[in-house]
Design goal:
Elements lengths: L3 H10 L13 H9 L9 E5 L4 H11 L6 E4 L11 E3 L2 E2 L2 H18 L6 H15 L4 E5 L16 E4 L7 H4 L3 H9 L7 E4 L4 H14 L2 E4 L13 E2 L5 E2 L5 H8 L7 E4 L7 H8 L5 E4 L22 E4 L3 H5 L5 E3 L2 H10 L5 H18 L3
Parallel strand pairs: 1-5, 1-6, 2-5, 6-7, 7-8, 10-14, 11-12, 11-14, 12-13
Antiparallel strand pairs: 2-3, 3-4, 9-10
Helix pairs in contact: 1-4, 2-4, 4-5, 7-8, 9-10
Length: 370
């Protein structure tokens, strides 16, 4: 792939992960969107928040609206290409369009004298500008983190979906289910309909209180179309289940689709709920192949020794490629694991693998000093 302007643009968008923390004021992003003529107001939208299954729900909602005009989809993170985040009618943004939209966003930022945005804030501004430029009829938007102070929540959406909420991102969202639910419930807008998945009682109490304040209508979760989403309960040509789940509930959901005695390759990131997630897998008959997840945040395979297993059998194979050669029934633990497995098992074209490698190198370089 020779479109260097694309990677130049992407290099400008990517910022160190921990350099700009959540929550933070959105006044700068509001000013940037105003300089872009508030593109987020030029199409109706639905937002999705929660802890588990957000991306799949977004894909299902977009599929449900297929045939009702031009349907946009904004999700994160990506598996292989950053362009996966910006989709219209099933097609990711083209390289030339990405470069053009980034130029507009960057110029607007320079006009207002603000360029201190996070990767996600830059991407969200680009998504809004792109969807408005393409005159989409509806956009399905995935909240990045929390909700109340998330960039996506600046879109004046008319409906919201809240997937199951669990402990996550405790450093930024607070250490309790109630504080996390408060952030998530912040997507609720005055008078809108909010579909809520089954929640723990303390979470539901927070959501109900926010809905009452906003005069919003809560409705039970409803059936959505079944969709196939890359890296989410995806079956490779060799039969291996690939799933990017990285939370205890995500692990439980995958196990419902696996036979007794499954061989599972596990690779996790350092900052996840490792002990609780591994406890879900500690079942008699399971054989766990513990490996190092790709990237600088990957937990070294040898560190799994700190987590004793009482029922499952285990072996440590640090190199992911070697672990994938061990004939697993499933691969689980992070989206980086899912991406690497998809590339290894023939689900990704050579051109996309090349783009993915360059994209990952840019992200790793920006975070190398942290």
């Amino acid at each position: 792939m020779s479109a260097h302007p694309y990677f130049d643009a992407l290099n400008q968008i990517i910022q160190p992960i921990h350099a700009i923390m959540y929550p933070r004021p959105l006044d700068g992003l509001c000013a940037l969107l105003a300089a872009l003529n508030n593109p987020q107001t030029r199409f109706p939208s639905t937002v999705v928040t929660g802890s588990v299954g957000k991306t799949t729900v977004c894909h299902a909602l977009a599929a449900e609206k297929a045939g009702q005009g031009r349907i946009a989809l904004y999700t994160s993170p990506h598996l292989h290409s950053f362009r996966e985040r910006f989709v219209i009618d099933g097609a990711p943004i083209a390289i030339d369009a990405f470069v053009e939209m980034w130029a507009r966003v960057r110029c607007a930022a320079e006009r207002i004298g603000r360029t201190d945005f996070s990767t996600f804030e830059w991407a969200t501004a680009l998504a809004f500008a792109y969807f408005a430029e393409m005159r989409v009829d509806h956009a399905v938007l995935e909240i990045g983190l929390g909700g109340r102070f998330d960039a996506v929540n600046l879109a004046p959406h008319s409906a919201a979906y809240i997937t199951p909420i669990e402990l996550e991102h405790a450093a930024m969202l607070g250490g309790t289910l109630e504080t996390i639910a408060w952030h998530k419930a912040g997507v609720i807008r005055r008078g809108e309909i909010v579909h809520v998945a089954p929640q723990p009682a303390e979470v539901m109490a927070v959501i109900e209180r926010e809905a009452e304040i906003q005069g919003a209508t809560l409705q039970p979760w409803r059936d959505l179309p079944a969709v196939s989403v890359p890296g989410r309960l995806e079956r490779a040509p060799n039969g291996t289940q690939i799933d990017g789940a990285h939370t205890p509930n995500g692990f439980r959901h995958l196990l419902a689709h696996l036979p007794d005695g499954a061989r599972i390759v596990v690779g996790m990131l350092r900052d996840k709920r490792i002990a609780e997630s591994l406890a879900v897998l500690d079942r008699a008959g399971f054989h766990l192949i513990l490996t190092t997840a790709p990237g600088s945040r990957g937990l070294p395979a040898t560190d799994f020794a700190a987590y004793p297993f009482r029922a499952a059998s285990t072996e440590v194979i640090p190199a992911l490629d070697a672990a994938l050669d061990a004939h697993p029934d499933a691969v689980i633990g992070s989206l980086r694991m899912a991406a690497a497995t998809r590339e290894r098992f023939g689900l990704v074209s050579p051109d996309m693998i090349a783009e993915a490698e360059r994209t990952r190198a840019l992200f790793e370089a920006k975070n190398a000093a942290l």
